[in-house]
Amino acid sequence: MRIVVVVVIVALTSCAPLMVMSEKADIAPSDARIDAVWKAVPALDGREVDVEATRREGRTMYRRVPPRVTLADIQPSPIYRGHPNKSIAALMINVAWHEERLPAMLDTLRKNRVRATFFVLGSWAHKHTASVKHIDEMGHEIGNHAYTHRNMSSLSAYAQRQEIVRTAQLLATLGVHPSPWFAPPSGDYNEETVRVAWAYGLYTVLWSVDTIDWREPKPDVLVQRVMAHIHAGALVLMHPTAAATQALPTLIDRIRARGLQLGTVSDVLSSARTDTNCGFARACATLGTREERFVKW
Ligand SMILES: [Zn+2]
Per the domain annotation, does 233 fall within a domain? Predict the structure, then answer.
């Protein structure tokens, strides 16, 4: 009898530190869902301590716990932002004109090791194929911004499909890495838009933070505006304007100082966690990963 008691105490004692660590470190996954305000909210992986790896590496290592429901499983819905518990934001740069400012923007992004998502208008991309390929080659993500910048909701389903397909085909011809994102011009869409985009394998993406850079505010006004609204999982809308180009270095610093990483729309909307060492945008990612480029950077 006494022996049994001793064995139980020894077992409890040796397990205790591990149990405490697991309780703190393990986080349950969060399923994708449709929110009344934010529409589609992406899933977020859970994590659990990988005991074997933790012992081997001598530091806490995690295993991914996948969600049961991802974006692909829910009814097609527009997306405004990433998961609110994910400490990352994306710059979504819509390009329909002002290509003369792209080199400066790209330079700032490269110097700061930031990958962004450029949503290109098809008719613009058709005239600037070298620019589109260059953006892709630099490791940024390319999204679909329709072909002619007309309001999608004013078009028939057929015309909406044409807007999306023409740009998608052009991007495929150019050989850029495909992405599943469609940003409707001026953020204008209706149910048909979401349905048509989805039928073509694309999610309709809006934004949660607007720089309103087309008004060409002073750079510090733009920075203050963004910082007043920035949040975990933010999609930050901008264009190659003078204001955004000048504000970009400060904006990157300030967003990072707020504890947020910066990545592409795929990085923000994937279910991959940013707080595990199984590798954000690597093994854990479930959407639009570009591992080889991430590692190279
Ligand atoms: Zn636009």
Answer: yes
